[in-house]
Amino acid sequence: MNVSGCALSFSTLPLSCLLAGTVCLPVVLSGVARAADVTPQDARTSFDSAQPADTAQQPTHPKQTVTSFSDSKGEHINVNARLDRMRSALQPATGATTYRFSRKDIETIPGGDNAPMNAVLLQAPGVAQDSYGQIHIRGDHNEVQFRLDGVQLPEGLSVFGQTLMTRFAHSMSLTTGALPSEYGFQQAGVIDITTKNGSADPGGEVSIYGGARDYFFPSLQYGGSHGKWDYFVTADFVHDRVGIENTTPKFNALHDLSNQYHFLGHLRYTVDDTTRISFTAGVSNAYYQLPNNPGQQRQFANPDFLNSQLAQQVYGTGDSASLNERQKEITDFAILSLQKEIGNFSLQSSVFSRYSSLGYSPDPLGDLVYNGIAQNAQRSVMSTGSQSDVTWHAAPHHTVRFGYQAYVERTVSQTDSTVYPQTGTDSDGNAIFSGATETIHDGNGRTGWMYGLYAQDEWQPVRNLTINYGLRFDGVDEYTHSKQVSPRINVVWQPWHGGTLHAGYSRYFTPPPFELVGGTSLDKFANTSAAPGTLQDTTVKAERDHYFDAGISQMLLPGWHASFDAYLKLARNMIDEGQFGSPIILSAFNYRKGKAHGYEFATDYTRGPFSVYGNFAWSRAMGEDITSAQWNFDPADLSYIRNHWIHLDHDQRWTASAGGSYTAFYQTGHPTRLSATMVYGSGLRADGAIPNGAKVPQYVTFNLSLVQSFQDLFHISFLKRTQLRLDVINLFDRRYELRDGSGIGVGAPQYGLRRTILTGLSQRF
């Protein structure tokens, strides 16, 4: 049993995981989720479809002369904007459901750029929140890929939102549904972040944000251009005492200090109006105390130890309120890209590298007393790879796209575990343990790779009908070795003005997360207090899915849009993840069969300074028969699940959100914006009479934000916009539980953040 908070935070805002339950949905100004190259143009939720091939999808033919950017900053901005459009056209999500968030939308979120990234993503229907700031999209545990300027980043040990701050994004999108063939590996959702750059985000800003619980969040950003170069850098520091969710419903958590450092740099060189080279690099260092769960009395995690003589001897010798468990997480990444247009061809080719490491330090006595093991755990993964995407405008009604992705990865794991050795059994068959301890060292490393190739044709037989069909070939050679050819097809029809219908099918292949597949030598822990209930440890397999999706999007009135979407996923070797034991490292495992289905509804209305939105989703995710990493589970649970469908631990039936905003004096230099948001969840799963057979109580939270802006407040030419903000999180101080500490792969209880008041001051220059 883990008696402290036990997973890493999704978001970079240290209120992060806690804010996941509260600062969830910003007020949406006009254009939220506005889809480019989609009809209707004002849709915030849209099904991507190509415009007629002889209009929007045709590129502007490149000039044959080189532009001198040194003479015209406006020309530099226009060329970069055009190249950005061409880059987006390399990876359209034709037939999929896309939610787009502009810079203006992001700034409207309570907290603005200081808010965690999951607060932005939770605007979209079908996205459920979990503890540690994690999100679940359409019933999947993870399977979420992040892209920076179209380049997919390899998975890392920490939930990647810790590295990618909301502040980094100029705009972003979330794409779900039956994805076209250019999207591979993680396919529950594709989060594509367009990073800030010197052309679109010139100038600088310094800000200070903070409030209760020692929350202190200074940040600095600056962007500009010179000749053919443009650049952008941002850095911040986060300090607070709510880094991970509270394990109790009290106002303050015990032992919950966090310090986080983040940096992102973006540099581009525009050779001419058809060629651009860019380099992006980021760093994230995070240090966490794991919050304590006072009043724990259970000794050892394994039931076999509960009645042992040693358990009686050590009972009460460790105080669960004063444990000192800590975790350190580091992530560094870099991307080098070349974008080029040659006649009817356009391409982007990139090389990238990402390193991440995670280190867990136990409480030497407390972990031993409560868990039967005190384990120092270190794990790291280094990923290097390449991605290329090419678009060929082959004919007036055919756009052909093809490309590849390939990663080489090296993961290393080392643990030093202190345990009690077993010396025998008593007359009742209970284990007898020595009072002396022993140390077990375990370590392993492995190198592997995964790759994917794709080709597809976007065909428009008639003006209002688009058919996108293609094939994808994926392979993985890591802990598991498997391959698959995946057909995909999407049909998008625009039968009337303002309306779009779509239907699609995609075959998916998802490799297991290399860095989360355990390489533990179980035999070393036999006959100790850390012995697993079973020594069975089948290798985690790749997941294979049939995915169906259909929906409709309609502009009802000017400014008023609505959409409905339904989906069904049938999985073999469904991948799930859980946290087993004290080290905050998720472990992957498979259900032999899995299924997820549901529907989503979204609507929004914007008129002038007023906007309002609402969405809800219904979902069901089930699995049967755990067929890998079995040693992590109780033998009785394994036996039941072998022949019974159960809810996945992250299954939540109903998820909803709503919000609105009004901006007074919005046509002046001193606008005042008032916004309010709401988030509802029917509750994630918990153990009942059967594994995951119950759920935690439903909850609803409200937030309020007030932002006052001033233009040239100090009448100094160097200083531009000044902004003051006040955010109230969990306005009515609701006590609510995200996790109760039970369920398959669930650690300690997790409670949402109590009422918190935050203030901020930012100055543009």
Automatic annotation (TrEMBL):
Residues 43-74 are annotated as: Disordered. It is a multi-pass membrane protein. Residues 288-731 form the TonB-dependent receptor-like beta-barrel domain. It is found in: Cell outer membrane. Residues 43-71 have a biased composition (Polar residues). Pfam families: TonB_dep_Rec_b-barrel (PF00593). Residues 1-35 form the signal peptide. Keywords: Cell outer membrane, Membrane, Receptor, Signal, TonB box, Transmembrane, Transmembrane beta strand, Transport. Its main location: membrane. InterPro entries: Beta-barrel_TonB (IPR000531), Beta-barrel_TonB_sf (IPR036942), TonB-dep_rcpt-like (IPR039426). PANTHER family: HEMOGLOBIN AND HEMOGLOBIN-HAPTOGLOBIN-BINDING PROTEIN 1-RELATED, TONB-DEPENDENT OUTER MEMBRANE RECEPTOR. This is TonB-dependent receptor. It comes from Novacetimonas pomaceti.
